[in-house]
Amino acid sequence: AVPPEDVKPLVKDLGAIPISFSLRNKYTLMELENFLNSKCHPFEKMEILSNGLLLQLLRMMYLAAATEKHSNCWLIDVNCKGYENQEVKKAAINSFKKNEETISTFLYNGLEELRDVLLSDKKEEAKIIKAAADDSYRLFRKLGKSIGIIIPNTGSGMRFSLSEEIIEFLVLTVIPPKHMITLDEFVNQLYEHFGMVIGAKQYKKEMSNGVLTSVSDLSFMEENKKAFAQKLKECGFLRDLSDATAIVENPYEMEED
Asked: Strand, helix or coil at 215?
């Protein structure tokens, strides 16, 4: 045994949740309740939740950097096999570049505001900027790629997408157990909750806000929504009714009290 006098005390700095993270307050508890009430295998549930927590963290990180002058939306290239769309891909790549510029702008603004505190020696500036980049947009990329919210894993053309694992998390958090909503409502809920732009309606709204590139023909975003419907169907969450209305369903039973 180690003598008590040789045991060094563990010293930690007191951390705090940034105030900007409160921007997610409106939906967080609702999403958590829906997810926890969905009855599935505990191990599967833990895996889904671990991916979902990273998604929530990335969203909060981005909202902390975004301001009224910057985009807080994520243009999603669904990228479903057999439904690939080059116009969507191009728009998503351009949007992702703007998203990263938002984070970089936030970092440099912080550097200017705290220059006297952070920099006692100008030689340290490059080191501090590199550390900030590693802890922000580079970390953002790494975590996003690990859960399939950013593609591709290597190479150029980075953009937001949706992996099957993230789609499952989104369904279980937005829709209560054994409930269903229309595809259009689900797409709109993803926009309201997470700023995800998947269909033409959401693109048009961000276009009017001056965030996304103005275009007259939004048919490519309608194709993107069709790709999303197909991906939902492949994951077992979408079915077509007799009147051609697409329904997204959380198929899980309610957890027992």
From this structure: coil
